[in-house]
Specification:
Layout (H helix, E strand, L loop, with lengths): L1 E2 L5 E2 L8 H6 L8 E5 L3 E7 L8 E6 L2 E8 L18 E8 L4 E11 L2 E8 L12
Antiparallel strand pairs: 1-2, 3-4, 4-9, 5-6, 6-7, 8-9
Length: about 130
């Protein structure tokens, strides 16, 4: 136990899960993502290391892009004793709402080196333009 300022006591506890504890619990995790806006488009990059393209799905519905998938633990490793499980496993779902100015017909997706990259083009009316002065 540690006594904090003001007399509060905090107990430090360490949890070391065994294989039995981790094998029976349901894991949900969220992949990390970066969204950037550019003059003509948005870019979404999601970290999905160790996945194949067929392991996740992308759906666009009503301006919401939803990414979902599942990462299973390697079940054929029966005889191994794991000292730690740090890589997330289980199902995930991640949704992103984009403005109405995204042209849903012009979304390009690539998956390379564990990173899913989407480029979402803006509609022509939303792109900046130069106005000629008469």
């Amino acid at each position: 136990s540690v006594i904090l300022k003001g007399g509060l006591i905090m107990t430090l506890v360490r949890y070391y899960p065994t294989r039995e504890h981790t094998a029976t619990r349901t894991n949900h995790w969220v992949p990390t993502a970066d969204v950037t806006e550019h003059e003509n488009d948005y870019t979404l990059e999601v970290d999905l290391p160790g996945f194949e393209k067929a392991d996740f799905t992308l759906k666009l519905n009503d301006g919401v892009l939803t990414l979902s998938g599942d990462r299973a633990r390697n079940e054929h490793d029966h005889g191994k004793y794991y000292h730690s499980f740090e890589r997330p496993t289980g199902a995930f779902t991640r949704s992103f709402r984009f403005p109405d100015n995204v042209d849903s017909a012009k979304i390009n997706a690539t998956y390379e080196n564990g990173v899913l990259k989407l480029q979402l083009e803006k509609k022509e009316a939303a792109k900046p333009r130069t106005i000629k002065i008469a």
